[in-house]
Amino acid sequence: MLIRFNPSLIIAGTDEAGRGCLAGPVTAAAVILDGHTEYEQLNDSKKLSVGLRNMIRPLIEQHAICYSVAHLHPETIDEINILNASIEAMHHALSDLKQNPEKILVDGNRFKPYGAVPYECVIKGDGKYLSIAAASVLAKTYRDAYMEKIHEEYPMYNWKKNKGYPTAEHREAIKKYGVSPYHRKSFQLLPKQLKLEL
């Protein structure tokens, strides 16, 4: 059973998706939920089927006080590294919220101060707090939709299926076709024994 944090505070939950991918953006979402809507099936997005995620997303968007989603693209990931890019994407999402939070709940164990707003890092927070779970669903569904869109441009990598994650099929396509503009050049795109001309 996921719980709400302190209902007397304006809480923003934030989470990211796509951190371990070889291609595409890291995508973060921030959500401030209202204090009374029930989300019976809401959970960590990784524990939900694609159908459930896509069913819950419009409910979150309809009932949340506000929400925001931000993509940070491979060139930035390569420049500042994936951890910093993940945190920066969360900061972008928070800054686009229509209401300022009084506290931020962050999934994971690493974050950087966002102005003077107090924050709490919660390991596996997307399975503990509603606002983080809502952010995880938005980040995942928006990123998946982005990957399906760029799949049309580069179908050989099959991003509509693997979403940029390092599957055997994805690595085989990189080996065969080389890298696309959407690949993260700072990541180990192929096993060490295989050389890749960048």
From TrEMBL:
RNase H type-2 domain sequence ranges: 9-198
InterPro entries named among the record's database cross-references: RNase_HII (IPR022898), RNase_HII/HIII (IPR001352), RNase_HII/HIII_dom (IPR024567), RNaseH-like_sf (IPR012337), RNaseH_sf (IPR036397)
Pfam families with a match to the protein in the record: RNase_HII (PF01351)
Record keywords: Cytoplasm, Endonuclease, Hydrolase, Manganese, Metal-binding, Nuclease
A GO molecular function held by the record: RNA-DNA hybrid ribonuclease activity
Cofactors that this protein relies on: Mn(2+); Mg(2+)
GO cellular component: cytoplasm; ribonuclease H2 complex
Chain segments annotated as transmembrane: none
Binding positions for a divalent metal cation per the UniProt entry: D15, E16, D107
GO terms under biological process: DNA replication, removal of RNA primer; mismatch repair
Documented EC number(s): 3.1.26.4
Subcellular compartments: Cytoplasm
CC cofactor note: Manganese or magnesium. Binds 1 divalent metal ion per monomer in the absence of substrate. May bind a second metal ion after substrate binding.
Domain of life assignment: Bacteria
Cited SUPFAM superfamilies: Ribonuclease H-like
UniProt catalytic activity: Endonucleolytic cleavage to 5'-phosphomonoester
Similarity section: Belongs to the RNase HII family.
Function: Endonuclease that specifically degrades the RNA of RNA-DNA hybrids.
Annotated protein name in UniProt: Ribonuclease HII
Lineage start: Bacteria, Pseudomonadati, Bacteroidota, Flavobacteriia, Flavobacteriales
